[in-house]
Design goal:
The chain has about 250 residues and is of the alpha/beta class. It has eight helices and seven strands, in the order E-H-E-H-E-H-E-H-E-H-E-H-H-H-E. The longest helix is centred in the middle third of the chain and has 26 residues, at about 100-125. Bound molecules: nicotinamide-adenine-dinucleotide (NAD).
Length: about 250
């Protein structure tokens, strides 16, 4: 029960990696706020957690909506100890010739600017007591993938933002780190695997010979958010079956 008495906020908690992480935090004693643009999905995950969870609707691209989400957590649970900034969308899987400006803006808004909006609101809520924040980047935040223009740019941005925010916030007792998942069995990946160029590339990149279960990403998130990681600051850690060993 590593998180007994702790309050945890998870964006994108209605599906995939976020939902798996929400369940694990609850299993370890946390009170969990499950935030998602899809309120039905967030409520469905919360309903499996016997009263220890609260669902909240958020559009992470909208700073006012993000501020309201954090306020909801503070009102409901009294404080915020840990946050997992995880909501995101897949890329368009197009070449730079094919990708249009709206597709570029949308992915940067949902996958990168959102993390800034969340970090800012969460840091305010944690300012007096400290806390732990984990962002979801990607192996695409460390290496490039073909047809990955806007997704790679956004995830490289999350890596830079994580490192910089970590240096700013550690003096307030707030640790910031990121997980960089490889291919993980979620709706997002199922949509991406529809593209055979990307699917073949992904399969050929994974030495462990399979894609990840969302629980395998959640395990690293819980470690980074826990007191066991008390000296881990500003790290962006790949969890990818050996795909990008450096
Ligand atoms: P998923 O589609 O299962 O879950 C993403 C969740 O984010 C959904 O519930 C969705 O409703 C929510 N969301 C999307 N836009 C939102 C918005 N504007 N506001 C609030 N919520 C929003 O996908 P997943 O694979 O679990 O993705 C989680 C994170 O992991 C993403 O940041 C993704 O980029 C990253 N990631 C996934 C993989 C993978 O292979 N699945 C690999 C690397 C990184």
């Amino acid at each position: 029960m590593r998180f007994n008495g702790k309050t945890v906020l998870i964006t994108g908690g209605g599906s995939g990696i976020g939902a798996a992480t929400a369940r694990k935090f609850a299993d370890h004693g946390a009170q969990v706020a499950i935030a998602d643009i899809d309120m039905g999905a967030a409520e469905a995950v919360a309903a499996t957690m016997s009263g220890k969870a609260s669902a909240v609707q958020v559009d992470v691209t909208d700073p006012a909506s993000v501020n309201a989400m954090v306020q909801h957590v503070v009102d409901r649970f009294g404080r915020l100890d840990c946050a997992f900034n995880n909501a995101g969308i897949g890329g368009a899987h197009k070449t730079i010739f094919e990708l249009d400006h709206d597709e570029w803006r949308r992915t940067i808004d949902v996958n990168l600017s959102s993390v800034f909006h969340c970090l800012k609101a969460e840091a305010e809520a944690m300012r007096d007591r400290g806390g732990a924040i984990v962002n979801t980047a990607s192996v695409s935040g460390i290496i490039a993938t073909p047809r990955g223009t806007e997704y790679c740019a956004a995830k490289h941005g999350v890596v830079g933002l994580t490192k910089s925010a970590a240096l700013d916030l550690i003096s307030h007792g707030i640790r910031v780190n990121a997980v960089c998942p490889g291919a993980t069995d979620t709706r997002l990946l199922a949509r991406a695997m529809g593209n055979t160029v990307l699917a073949d590339h992904l399969k050929s990149m994974i030495p462990i010979g399979r894609i990840a279960h969302p629980d395998e990403i959640a395990n690293l998130v819980l470690f980074l958010a826990s007191d066991e990681a008390s000296y881990v600051v500003g790290q962006c850690i790949a969890v990818d079956g050996g795909a990008i060993v450096q």
